[in-house]
Structure formats: C-alpha cells, structure tokens
TrEMBL record:
GO BP terms: regulation of DNA-templated transcription
Full protein name: Transcriptional regulator
One annotated GO molecular function: transcription cis-regulatory region binding
DNA-binding region, residue intervals: 118-214
Keywords: Activator, DNA-binding, Phosphoprotein, Transcription, Transcription regulation, Two-component regulatory system
Protein species of origin: Leucobacter chromiiresistens
GO cellular component: cytosol; protein-DNA complex
Keyword DNA-binding listed: yes
Gene3D superfamilies: 3.40.50.2300, Winged helix-like DNA-binding domain superfamily/Winged helix DNA-binding domain
Length: 223
C-alpha cells in the first residue's frame, strides 16, 4: 500500500511494527495541511499523535471535509480518552501494535474496486447494453422478453458467424434445458418481427442454423 504518515519524527519510532511491513511510506510534517489531491494519491493517511494528541486532532479535523482517503490515528493508550468521532478517523493504532495487527487494520481499510461495467455490444445498428438489459436498433428501443434479449445479445455479439439450433440452445437456454430446437425457431421468428424492416439481420442458413448480419459482414470483407 501507498501510505502517507503525518509525523514530526521517523514513523519507525511512532509505530515500530510498520517498519517490518512492505508498504511504501512517505512522511510529511504533522503541521502540514494535506491537499485533497495529494491525499488521494495514497491508500491511507497515518496521523501520528504519539507526541502531541492535540496537534494530531487538528491534523485530523483539517482533513474531515477533504479527501475520502482513509485516515488512521496513532495514539498512546494514555491519550485514548481524547479520541472522539469528530476526529473523523476510520482506524486507531497503538504504538505497540504488532505487524500482524497493523497489516490487518490497513487491509480492512482498502476501498473495494468498482466492478467493471460490461461493454455494450454493437453490430449492424443494434446496440445492446447488458448492464441495463436494453437493446436498440438504430436508436429505436426494442421491447424484448428476457430470452429474446439473450438470443439477440448472443447473435449480435458474434456477427457473421452461423450457429446450429443446438448451439444456440446450449448458449442461450443452458445445457440443462430439455426443450427441443423448435424453441429457437419460435424465438427467432419473434425477434425478426420486432426488428421489423431489418428482420434480415438474422439470416437462416438451410441445414445449419442462424447467423447475424452475415450479409453486412460479407459486404465489408475485402476481395
């Protein structure tokens, strides 16, 4: 982790256990008012109150309305009565904390990474936003059932390819589906009806199955 320690002495003197951990620790004077942009470059800010709890409190208060970077105050046991919620810290460490305890408390402060949003599928005028379960055709919303959406999503995600009915059943309905391939034909017919004048985007390959935007892909291929 990238740590910023606000202290007027070596962090190893304030929190000896920290020196045994493989974190990158930068030190700045306790009196320094940390700009939000500076704090955001670190995973956590340590505020050293081992020598002067009042100055540590002032440093904490100066950050309450600023960065969302987690703050950890280091206080000796005799100064714990001074610690109140207004300090705005997320964790407390005693100077005698072991490396194991320090590591655990720092790990609990780690902010979860946002899950990546699935990319929208775009092919031949169809735009599918999987995160919102919406599908558009040249800007026009398509009113699809769940399985129609899944079938269009799979076909549009593989433009130019041809899939057998059995493959589509496996990919869209799942391997535990016991219905027949007629289900695929029914859903393709309904999808084509909703695509309207662009129903030809889903093509039939006799004796094989269905493909999406095959004519469009063939037109774009170099001779």
């Amino acid at each position: 982790m990238q740590l910023l320690c606000l202290s007027d002495r070596d962090p190893a003197d304030s929190l000896p256990g920290l020196d045994l951990l493989p974190h990158d620790v930068r030190t700045s004077p306790l009196s320094l008012r940390v700009p939000e942009t500076m704090a955001d470059r670190f995973d956590a800010v340590l505020i050293d109150g081992t020598l002067d709890a009042r100055r540590a409190r002032a440093a904490c208060l100066s950050m309450v309305d600023g960065s969302e970077t987690p703050r950890v105050v280091i206080l000796p046991e005799v100064a714990l009565t001074a610690l109140t919620p207004e300090w705005g810290v997320q964790e407390l460490l005693l100077p005698t904390a072991s490396p194991v305890e320090i590591e655990l408390r720092l790990r609990l402060l780690e902010r979860p990474q946002a899950a990546p949003q699935p990319a929208a599928v775009q092919a031949a005028g169809v735009i599918i936003d999987e995160s919102n379960f919406t599908a558009r055709l040249f800007g026009r919303p398509l009113d699809l059932t769940y399985k129609e959406f899944e079938l269009l999503h799979f076909l549009a995600g593989n433009p130019g390819r041809v899939f057998t009915r059995e493959q589509l059943l496996s990919e869209v309905w799942g391997t535990d589906y016991f219905g027949g391939t007629r289900t695929v034909d029914v859903h393709v017919r309904r999808l084509r009806a909703k695509l309207g004048e662009h129903e030809g985007l889903i093509s039939t390959v006799r004796g094989v199955g269905y493909g999406f935007a095959r004519a469009r892909i063939e037109e774009e291929e170099p001779e």
